[in-house]
Amino acid sequence: MIVNDEELKVLVIAIKNGDEIAFAKFYDLHSRNLYSRIMRIIKDDEIVQEILQDVFLKIWTKRDTLDPEKPIKAYLFKIAENLVYKHFRKIAQDQKLIEQLIVNNIDYVLPVEDKIIESETKILINKAIASLPPQRKIVFTLCRLEEKSYKEVSELLGISVYTINDHLVKANKSIKQYFLANQHLALLVIIPKVFNHLK
Predict the structure, then answer these.
(1) RNA polymerase sigma-70 region domain spans which residues (predicted)?
(2) Domain segments of the chain as ranges
């Protein structure tokens, strides 16, 4: 079921006025996609279902605050992001789970040259890159950020392709370790990026 912006606006107005049928239609429109996004991060159907219900419950209970002129989908995802982050704060004592989330989803915040990347993300990634040894930092920048081929970097720096690959493997490992050492910031960065990446 696909609706255009104008139809969605009408739907939001109806929800704001307490129309349960409109709310049910809104749920049908967005619940499956939102479920997939949350499941990508949490990977537990029962917990995901609970969060999903909480998201839509919050939409309904706060329907009088909805603004039809603002993008409801962005508001929906923001509520979901906050609830997911709240979930991880509750289980913060489970260190292995937090580490798994960061390691499994680190690629969503790289490369840093993404034009729409948030400033907080860019700052955290740049700090991680800055912590690399000089040559490794150069190789990572050329290959991952400037997207040069291994051959181009090999000719430019006068080192073998094998050495380049070794630098990249170690650089990725170092960046993951940096994120793990800064878990609070990493979660604030990764959760929104995963939501934005999955369409």
Answers:
(1) 27-90
(2) 5-90, 96-197
The Cβ of residue 87 has, within 10 Å, a number of other Cβ atoms equal to 19
Over the stretch 88-135, which tens digit does the pLDDT of each residue have?
777 665 666 666 666 666 655 555 444 444 566 667 778 888 889 999
| Helix pair 45-61, 20-42: axis angle to 10 deg | 140
Closest CA to 59 of 35, 76, 40: 76
Burial call 144-163: b when 16+ CB within 10 Å, e when fewer: beeebebeebbeeeeeeeeb
Query: pTM to 2 decimals?
Result: 0.52
Residue pointed to by tokens 């992001």? 81
Residue 147, phi-psi category: left (phi > 0), alpha (psi -120 to 50), beta (remainder)? left
* Domain 5-90, CATH among 3.30.1490.20, 1.20.1540.10, 1.10.1740.10, 3.30.70.360: 1.10.1740.10
